């Protein structure tokens, strides 16, 4: 225990905070304890420090649908918590409200309600976290956010509407979207 | 003393040997050429032996030789190549046939020869001096040399003189990048100038709102002067002074009042005459050219739409010998700023308080459908507009027919217009064919404002063969000699009955041409007028197997296709009893005729006249934004291509009707442009043969017999204001300026 | 030292005690206690020659004797609380940095009337409104409209 504390643990914490803001909760819960419990952690952390990016590991799969569901809500909460920051850094105040963005996120999640395989849910969650990280870290620009989550929201809504007018032809569906098809 | 100068001093003795020059004086003479052999331009003495095994060169710009009489062929040699050309060709034309491009400024194949720029100097054997090839007729056995030191030196000298007084303002010149002087000075000019004095400067002239002049740049090629007096037929431009005091001008302060004035911008080889609306807007290499068709009149001039991003920056003519040669009218060239103003960009529904509210396509189509289902089928009327393409017109006709109504027509076509015989509404002679005519009878048409390019053809014929032109209609302005026979159908009747002296002129003519104006289609007595015209045609042998001189000059781009597709009103009263009116770009119908309780849908691209009566607005694409088929007045089918994207939330015309038909439950069976074309093919097969002129087969002789119950009201003017005839030109600021300044009495 | 005390006493006599304190405050003597930089400038100023005052009120001093070359010209900023080098206008910059011996007042005569712009200090970090935003930026108050066409605007019945 002594060796470990003297070794890489503080450094490693720093690394997590700086790089993985969005998936940090998952890491804390599943990945760190697991690594701490078993094996020679010091050598692991040394290796980690040298080849940091190569060794980024994804959290283990959800064992059951229940767990996946729990993680999903965890993710949604985290996304909602980051929304005020998103509003601030992308200067979205006169474009959209927090509740609109929140419903935009939830509508995107609802789009995948039919998925029941926990592995697939994990994959989708991972994609969502990636996206969230990109957004929160300002890796995107204002027009990306507006295009995908403000204007793009109408497309989600239309897709939901699409269930209603199933009798229409592909021509008409395309026509409502764009002139170029 | 600079280091470079020292170095060059040191270099001089060696350079003498390096140059390998036989003339030791050379190093003291400051030469403007780099090659030493150019410094002794003695005429090359020994004729080169013709090399027979060289591959034949391709003629410049597809120069064609047409031998009317094989005996007239003469043979000359160009740079050692023997070339057969007809008698009367100039040396320059012979060189073009031989595949040698001669630099030129003043020579233009469609204008008379001036021979004043001297750029086209070539060496001719046994001639003491270089000759101006554009003005020199080729003689049998002439030995022309274009790449000898004499010719090169001559060109360099001429170029140096031209550049002497030409300002060095290419960076701020709008011609930069497409300037003949720029190009040719790169190719044929010297690499330095020797002129150190002050350049001359010339006061700019005001030629009106279209042509910008920077007269200091002018090189006095007089192309514009010749164009104005020969093609445009206005004697506004001329040349004043001599020597370095020579100027192009308008003699007195005078605007260039011609409907073709924009073409001087194209023919000016330098930046002296440039486009005023385009000034400092873009550089020509930034632009994307799209080959398209003009829709502002029924001629269908071939144009190139130059665009940058989503904006049309300018419109230029495209060469088409059969339609517009290489000219276009000012309306065609400068209407483009109308494409950026007053655009409809969202579907809109009128609120009860009279204001429009933008809605989604889904809602707009739902509202239209609801109303359309609530009225009786025969109270539904569809009218297509001046600028509609064939695709949208067939879609409109199919849609209205499927709802159960037969009231669908194109504006500008009156009730009981005969659309059964194609020869009864197109220009049977063809535009190019007008050049063979020797007598013209214009009935109720003012071609100068209705179809400026057709008028240019008539003027060309009148100039070339002194053809007679007679005109029946209200007093108007022609730019060639004509005889004003009368103002109304009364005169027509007199000619038909042989009481008028002109009926003799027609019968004596070899190739007589009768042109009936498209404005006649809106007269109630059009059958009687056409019958009278046909009687004249029969008496004067205007329609023969080898010559069909009976023409109708249509007014709008959509008219010929509409008549081909059968968009003709069935009865005169259908609009007055309508409850649901679908206007597809129709802005010039009498809006007072629409009952006040009727529901009006306007589908179009501009907020023009009809939107103020509309209940629902559906935004459509303008001609620069869609692929559309148009048939011109001579029956030639052509296609526009999208140059820029559509604005806002607008859609292509036929797609809107196709979508509406599905919402209304009468789904049209085509989803793609190809399918629409297939549908058109079943109705009018000539409309799918793009870029082909389909002549009418049947001679129009199935008309009702000639009757005398003709309405004696005089013919009206079909086009009041040449510059503002449709939604696009009415939205254009430039066109508004033109009509304010140029049409001012 | 005696001259300093004498001048203080004379100015107290002239302005009264309250006026004297106001003068001290305006000239930044009171801030000197906290701001060593300013204090040093003030000490420098003693016996130095006032070369000029620009239109913002910055005072330019020069003292050639006793001072090391490179430290012989300096500025006392008009702004006593937040001063920085960008407050020196262009015409004085050359003099201050020994690029030229022409004073700013002389160089001002060469400033082109037609297109010479006013000097502006650098306001970075002073608030959102001072940050430069390009004409397409959402935070630019006059954000440019890039639409290349002008839409038809519906009006009530004409």
Report on this structure.
The complex is a heterotrimer of chains A (181), B (745) and C (158). With 181 residues, chain A is mainly α. Helix content of chain A is 70%, strand content 0%. The termini of chain B are far apart. The model of chain B is unreliable at 1-27, 29-34 and 45-50 (pLDDT under 50). Chain B is built from 19 helices and 29 strands. Chain B has 745 residues and is α/β, with parallel strands linked by helices. In chain B, strands 14-13-26-25-24-15-16 form a 7-stranded mixed β-sheet. Chain B has a 5-stranded mixed β-sheet with strand order 2-1-5-3-4, with helices on both faces. In chain B, strand 27 (628-631) and strand 28 (636-640) form a beta hairpin. Chain C is built from 4 helices and 3 strands; from the N terminus they run ααβββαα. Chains in contact: A-B, B-C. The B-C interface holds B 309-311, 339-346, 348, 353-356, 606-607, 611-612, 647-648 and C 148-158.
Report on the biggest sheet of chain B: 7 strands, mixed
Poorly predicted ranges of chain A: 1-41
**Coarse structural class of chain A:** mainly alpha
What would you call the quaternary organization? heterotrimer
Cα shape of chain A? globular
Helical run tally of chain B: 19
> In the residues of chain B, how many domains can be counted?
4
Query: Quick one: overall form of chain B?
Result: globular
- End-to-end separation of chain A in angstroms reads 65 Å
Distance between the termini of chain B: 68 Å
Radius of gyration of chain A: 21 Å
Question: How many beta-strand runs of chain B?
Answer: 29
Number of strands of chain A: 0
What's the mean pLDDT score of chain B? 88
Unreliable stretches covering 5 or more consecutive residues of chain B? 1-27, 29-34, 45-50
Largest sheet, spatial ordering of strands of chain B: 14-13-26-25-24-15-16
Helix % of chain B is: 25-40%
- What percent of the residues of chain A sit in helical stretches (DSSP H or I)? 55-70%
Largest interface: B-C, 22 and 11 residues
């Amino acid at each position: 225990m002594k060796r470990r504390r003297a070794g890489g643990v503080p450094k490693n914490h720093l690394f997590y905070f700086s790089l993985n803001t969005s998936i940090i909760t998952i890491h804390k819960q599943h990945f760190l304890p697991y690594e701490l419990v078993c094996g020679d952690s010091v050598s692991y952390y040394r290796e980690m420090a040298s080849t940091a990016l190569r060794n980024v590991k994804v959290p283990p799969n959800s064992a059951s649908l229940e767990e996946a569901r729990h993680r999903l809500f965890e993710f949604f909460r985290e996304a909602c918590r980051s929304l005020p920051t998103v509003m601030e850094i992308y200067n979205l105040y006169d474009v959209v409200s927090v509740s609109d963005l929140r419903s935009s996120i939830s509508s995107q999640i609802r789009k995948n309600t039919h998925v029941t395989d926990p592995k697939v849910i994990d994959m989708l969650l991972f994609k969502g976290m990636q996206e969230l990280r990109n957004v929160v870290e300002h890796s995107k620009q204002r027009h990306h956010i507006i295009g995908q989550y403000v204007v793009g929201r109408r497309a989600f809504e239309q897709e939901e509407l699409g269930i209603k007018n199933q009798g229409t032809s592909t021509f008409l569906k395309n026509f409502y979207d764009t002139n170029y098809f | 003393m600079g280091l470079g100068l020292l170095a060059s001093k040191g270099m001089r003795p060696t350079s003498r040997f390096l140059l390998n020059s036989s003339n030791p004086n050379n190093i003291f003479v400051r030469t403007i050429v780099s090659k030493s052999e150019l410094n002794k331009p003695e005429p090359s003495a020994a004729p080169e032996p013709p090399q027979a095994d060289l591959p034949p060169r391709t003629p410049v710009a597809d120069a064609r030789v047409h031998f009317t009489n094989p005996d007239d062929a003469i043979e000359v040699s160009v740079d050692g190549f023997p070339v057969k050309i007809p008698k009367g060709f100039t040396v320059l034309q012979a060189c073009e046939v031989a595949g040698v491009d001669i630099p030129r400024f003043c020579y233009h194949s469609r204008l008379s020869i001036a021979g004043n720029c001297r750029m086209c100097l070539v060496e001719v054997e046994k001639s003491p001096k270089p000759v101006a090839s554009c003005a020199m007729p080729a003689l049998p056995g002439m030995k022309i040399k274009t790449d000898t030191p004499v010719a090169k030196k001559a060109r360099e000298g001429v170029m140096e003189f031209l550049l002497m007084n030409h300002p060095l303002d290419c960076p701020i010149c709008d011609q930069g990048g497409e300037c003949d002087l720029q190009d040719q000075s790169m190719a044929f000019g010297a690499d330095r100038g020797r002129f150190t004095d002050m350049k001359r400067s010339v006061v700019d002239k005001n030629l009106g709102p279209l042509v910008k002049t920077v007269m200091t740049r002018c090189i006095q090629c007089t192309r514009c002067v010749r164009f104005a007096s020969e093609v445009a037929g206005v004697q506004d431009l001329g040349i004043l002074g001599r020597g370095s005091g020579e100027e192009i001008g308008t003699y007195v302060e005078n605007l260039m009042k011609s409907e073709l004035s924009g073409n001087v911008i194209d023919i000016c080889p330098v930046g002296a005459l440039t486009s005023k609306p385009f000034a400092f807007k873009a550089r020509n290499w930034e632009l994307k050219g799209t080959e398209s068709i003009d829709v502002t009149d029924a001629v269908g001039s071939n144009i190139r739409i130059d665009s940058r991003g989503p904006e049309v920056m300018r419109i230029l003519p495209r060469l088409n010998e059969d339609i517009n040669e290489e000219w276009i009218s000012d309306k065609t060239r400068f209407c483009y700023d109308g494409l950026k103003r007053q655009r409809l960009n969202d579907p809109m529904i009128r609120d009860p308080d009279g204001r429009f509210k933008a809605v989604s396509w889904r809602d707009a189509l739902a509202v239209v459908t609801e109303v359309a289902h609530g009225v009786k089928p025969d109270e539904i009327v569809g009218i297509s507009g001046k600028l509609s393409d064939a695709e949208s017109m067939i879609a409109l006709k199919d849609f209205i027919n499927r709802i159960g109504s037969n009231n669908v027509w194109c504006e500008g076509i009156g009730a009981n217009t005969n659309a059964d015989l194609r020869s009864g509404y197109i220009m049977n002679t063809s535009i190019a064919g007008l050049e063979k005519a020797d007598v013209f009878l214009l009935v109720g048409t003012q071609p100068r404002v209705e179809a400026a390019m057709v008028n240019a053809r008539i003027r060309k014929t009148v100039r070339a063969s002194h053809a007679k032109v007679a005109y029946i209609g209200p007093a108007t302005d022609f730019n060639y000699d004509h005889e004003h026979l009368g103002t109304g159908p009364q005169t027509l009747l007199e000619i038909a009955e042989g009481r008028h002296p002109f009926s003799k002129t027609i019968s004596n003519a070899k190739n007589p041409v009768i042109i009936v104006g498209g404005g006649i289609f809106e007269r109630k007595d059009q059958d009687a007028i056409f019958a009278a015209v046909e009687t004249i045609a029969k008496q004067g042998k205007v329609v023969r197997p080898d010559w069909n001189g009976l023409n109708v000059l249509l007014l709008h781009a959509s008219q010929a296709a509409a008549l081909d597709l059968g968009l003709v009103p069935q009865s005169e009263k259908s609009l007055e009893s309508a409850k649901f009116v679908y206007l597809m770009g129709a802005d010039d119908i009498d809006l007072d005729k629409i009952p006040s309780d009727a529901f009006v849908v306007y589908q179009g691209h501009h907020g023009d006249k009809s939107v103020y009566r509309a209940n629902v607005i559906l935004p459509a694409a303008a001609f620069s934004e869609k692929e559309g088929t148009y048939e011109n007045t001579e029956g030639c089918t052509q296609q526009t291509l999208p140059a820029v994207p559509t604005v806002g939330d607008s859609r292509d015309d036929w797609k809107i009707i196709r979508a509406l038909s599905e919402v209304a439950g009468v789904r049209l069976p085509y989803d793609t442009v190809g399918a629409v074309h297939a549908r058109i093919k079943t109705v009018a097969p000539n409309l799918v043969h793009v870029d082909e002129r389909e002549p009418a087969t049947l001679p129009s002789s199935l008309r009702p017999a000639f009757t005398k119950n003709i309405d004696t009201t005089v013919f009206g003017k079909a086009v009041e204001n040449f510059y503002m005839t449709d939604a696009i030109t009415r939205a254009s600021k430039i066109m508004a300026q033109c009509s304010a300044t140029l049409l001012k009495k | 030292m005696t001259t300093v005390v004498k001048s203080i006493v004379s100015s107290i006599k002239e302005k009264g005690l309250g006026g004297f304190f106001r003068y001290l405050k305006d000239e930044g003597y009171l801030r000197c206690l906290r701001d060593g930089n300013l204090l040093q400038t003030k000490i420098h100023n003693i016996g130095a020659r006032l070369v000029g005052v620009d239109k913002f009120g910055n005072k330019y001093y020069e003292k050639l004797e006793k001072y090391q070359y490179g430290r012989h010209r300096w500025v006392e900023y008009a702004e006593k609380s937040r001063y920085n080098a960008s407050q020196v206008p262009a015409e004085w910059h050359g003099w201050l940095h020994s690029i030229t011996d022409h004073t700013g007042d002389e160089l001002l005569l060469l400033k082109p009337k037609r297109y010479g712009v006013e000097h502006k200090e650098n306001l970075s970090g002073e608030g959102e409104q001072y940050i430069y935003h390009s004409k397409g930026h959402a935070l630019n108050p006059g954000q440019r409209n890039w639409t290349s066409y002008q839409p038809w605007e519906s009006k009530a019945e004409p």
